[in-house]
Amino acid sequence: MEPVLGNIGPILPEEGYLEGVRRLTEDHGVLLIFDEVITGFRLSLGGAQAFYGVVPDMTTLGKVIGGGFPIGVVGGRRDLLETVAPRGGVYQAGTFNGSPVSLAAGMATLDVLEGERVLERLNAVGDGLRAALSDIVEDLGLGYSVVGIASIFKIFFGDLPKNYVEALRCDKAGYFAFFRRMLQAGVFLPPSQFETNFLSAAHTEDVINETLEAYKLNLRS
Ligand SMILES: Cc1ncc(COP(=O)(O)O)c(C=O)c1O
Predict the structure, then answer these.
(1) pLDDT at 221 over 80
(2) For the chain, where are the alpha helices, taking DSSP H only?
(3) Which of 74, 152, 188, 212 is most buried, taking the most CB atoms under 10 A from its CB?
């Protein structure tokens, strides 16, 4: 599971939800695997599991950990990973496994994220952006919902969804028309109601302000 749903939203876990899943999986002897491809090194340097304090048995990572280079990482409990060759009997191989270039790029990225406290800054920008978007939505009286966490944000064209089924009730066509207006205005958003927006360290205050202006103009049309 994704601890924060990125591929339908974002949708945040309700209070106690991740703890409940952890408890249930333990009770039933089921492995809990967090897909942190989106949340890893974004919610915090320790990912969503550090942010929410819920530790899975295994974790998958991608994106940020490659510093722009292609990479995927699987981590987890020692006893599980030791089932993989050469320690264990599960053979896993690939041309780019342990690729030194991707790993060097990833290590360099993580050094910068840690050394320059990038996430603290980025998350504060995210808080400010969501607050400003909420004000815009409220002023326009549209009944839309601003959601997100850390440097992740989105406007749902409808009530705040708490799960996949509720997310599907949003006004997809309305969002797509808005996407096209924003594109005309020079702001390239994801073309789907169900794709998440991300802030990056390259988004300056000017870019943020310009984006907010475009939201204000184009949400209402
Ligand atoms: C949550 C999530 N998991 C897994 C993947 C797949 O990652 P990759 O394209 O590196 O295989 C993606 C891709 O966007 C993703 O968003």
Answers:
(1) no
(2) 17-27, 47-52, 78-81, 100-115, 118-140, 164-167, 172-184, 205-219
(3) 152
Is there a contact between 144 and 130 (Cβ–Cβ < 8 Å)? no
Q: What would the mean pLDDT of 136-158 be, rounded to a whole number?
A: 96
For ligand 1, which residues put their CB under 6 angstroms from it? Answer: 2, 6-7, 35, 37-38, 62, 72
Ligand 1 pocket test: pick from 1, 37, 64, 195 the residue with the most ligand atoms within 8 Å of its Cβ. Answer: 37
Whole-structure pTM over 0.90, yes or no?
yes
- Half-sphere exposure of residue 218, counting CA atoms within 13 Å on the CB side? 23
Cβ(60)–Cβ(35) below 8 Å: yes
Partnered with residue 60 across adjacent β-strands are 35, 74
Q: Tell me the CA–centroid distance for residue 136 and ligand 1, in Å.
A: 31
Render pLDDT for 3-60 as a digit per residue (tens, 0 to 9).
Answer: 999 999 899 999 999 999 999 999 999 999 999 999 999 999 999 999 999 999 999 9
Cα 48 to Cα 38: distance, rounded to the nearest angstrom? 9
**Tokens standing for 120?**
């603290």
**Hey, which of 63, 64, 195, 196 would you mutate to test ligand 1's pocket, going by the most ligand atoms within 8 Å of its Cβ?**
63
